[in-house]
Amino acid sequence: MNALVENWHPDIPQDSHIELSVVVPLYNEHEVITLMYQRLTTVLTELAITYELVLVDDGSRDGTPNAISHLARQDPNITAVFLSRNFGKEAALTAGIEHAAGAAVVIIDADLQDPPELIPQMLDAWRNGADVVCMRRRSRAGETWLKRASAHHFYRLLNTISDVEIPADTGDFRLLSRKAVYALQQLNERNRYMKGLFAWIGLPTTVIEYDRMPRAAGITKWDYLGLLNLAFQGITSFSTAPLRFVMGSGLLTALLGVLFTLWIVTKALLLGDPVQGYPSLISMITILGGVQLLSIGLLGEYLGKTYYEAKQRPVYLVRDVLKRGKSVDNMTAYKNFSSIKKETYAPFR
Ligand code: UDP
Ligand code: MG
């Protein structure tokens, strides 16, 4: 195992003989799970390393939990984490990473859009000293023109205004060293825009390009509204630039207002003041009213974020964990709740 990883933290998980953990978030992925499992295990067994497969069921409503339990009882390399409900991909990833024991952790989508065959290449980069191996999409087969274009422009915008450099065209497909995992666990915010968090921690990063495949089976869990929401979350989680923009435009509007007033008053003094100007008055009121409401809404967005952070709720709740085919004693895990790891176990029965 990587000596650096071994020495870095006194708190190395007990299972640290595991060299690689592969974290897979699953939400209603019944159609693809068997294929995904087969392709991943083929790659992993060929590598001849100790590995574990962390399958996180994000409150699926189809046959996914059953399929995961079935696999976990057959294959001792599987750690199955069942969340108490659907918490969303970002929370599912957090759960997976926190339950992973490997010296290196690979995050991969269940739908095989990220080819598992690239894992050996990622491991090589890690062995050569990278703490983060970031996979950049050279192409995105099977995605609509609109999705590709909007993703492209979103990353450009985000990078221009955000506090950290979030590499363009990268997804959640990546490898994290144990050091990077510990770093990530210190970021205990509830609003988890993972791509931003990954970028925030820094550390030596290697970028590998790959061709993104179409989904192997099943349907995407994102609609445009969901993606728009994620994009907005990304921006407001990593930048206060919108607030500054609003302040700037407020300043500009006030300045224009002063100039306009000066002009109106001068005109009234020189030419008298017949009753007119209704259209200009109305347009000013509606425009300014709109801008004000928009600004208040934006402020509210940041305030709302603070509200959620202040609640200090856990990012996710675990219903059950299967390790080596056996259910982990949840009550013990519940009592061992650590303040660093924000995982919490629901009190059962
Ligand atoms: N996913 C999840 N929880 C959710 C939505 C999605 O765990 O609430 C998982 C999903 O099962 C898949 C990955 O996140 O493994 C990516 O989802 P999807 O393929 O639908 O997104 P896309 O590739 O279209 O961006
Ligand atoms: Mg996908």
Automatic annotation (TrEMBL):
It is found in: Cell membrane. It is a multi-pass membrane protein. This is Glycosyltransferase family 2 protein. Belongs to the glycosyltransferase 2 family. GtrB subfamily. InterPro entries: Glyco_trans_2-like, Glycosyltransferase_2, Nucleotide-diphossugar_trans. Coiled coil: none annotated. The chain crosses the membrane at residues 245-266, 278-303. GO terms for molecular function: glycosyltransferase activity.
